[in-house]
Amino acid sequence: MTRPETEALIVVDVQNDFCPGGALEVPDGDAILPGINALMEAFQVVILTQDWHPAGHSSFASQHEGKSPFEVTEMPYGAQVLWPDHCVQGTTGAAFHRDLDTDRAQMIVRKGFRPAIDSYSAFFENDHETPTGLEGYLRERGVDTVTLVGLALDFCVHYSAVDAARLGFRTHVLEQHCRAIDLDSSLEEALESMKAAGVELGH
């Protein structure tokens, strides 16, 4: 059944570096591709997000002497997990997985391109203030309901969903079309956070 134009599918960060073999692989990350491709056929509004970091991004552990990937440090905008170098602009790792049906998308939102600040959410940078422009695009297209799928459930999908709900969109996350990193119970915390924000979790 085709969804009405008031509903959008947001496919989060299905990129090579987040899939098996990538620099920041999410376990089983490529297993969700067939399901996402099938979902896209039902939506008239499809948006892809793409992590798009400059080389030497401040969220990379390599830029912090004595720090290792997955440690947490304090940035001017708050706590920041330090990551392996990943999704560097123009690299194979930053490209969408070859099996993702990108032709179905009408918009690609690139995020994390400002060197001094990371961006998990499709709507805001990690200062929770600097917008990506996605909200305006959805409003202008008359969208009031969003469904999120992709990688990783406990980071970029989580933050995007909470922001969507906070902005007043009816928000669904389809867990079977997501995979998580699950760093120090981050998955359990993300699920609780989404529920508290009014996000509808489903399969």
Record the SSE blueprint.
Elements: E1 7-12, H1 33-40, E2 45-51, E3 72-75, E4 78-81, E5 107-111, H2 134-140, E6 145-151, H3 153-166, E7 170-179, H4 186-197, E8 200-202
Number of E-type strands: 8
Tell me what portion of residues adopts beta-strand conformation: 15-25%
Ends distance:
17 Å
Radius of gyration: 16 Å
Oligomerization: single chain
Structural summary, described in words:
The protein is globular. The chain is 20% helix and 23% strand. It is α/β, with parallel strands linked by helices and 203 residues long. The relative contact order is 0.20. A 6-stranded parallel β-sheet has the order 5-2-1-6-7-8, sandwiched between helices. Helix 3 (153-166) runs parallel beside helix 4. It is built from 4 helices and 8 strands; from the N terminus they run βαββββαβαβαβ. The mean pLDDT is 97. The protein has helices spanning 33-40, 134-140, 153-166, 186-197, and strands at 7-12, 45-51, 72-75, 78-81, 107-111, 145-151, 170-179, 200-202.
Features:
alpha/beta, two-stranded antiparallel sheet, 203 residues, 23% strand, 6-stranded parallel beta sheet
Nutshell version of this structure?
This protein has helices spanning 33-40, 134-140, 153-166, 186-197, and strands at 7-12, 45-51, 72-75, 78-81, 107-111, 145-151, 170-179, 200-202. It has 203 residues and is α/β, with parallel strands linked by helices. Strands 5-2-1-6-7-8 form a 6-stranded parallel beta sheet, with helices on both faces. Strands 3-4 form a two-stranded antiparallel ribbon.
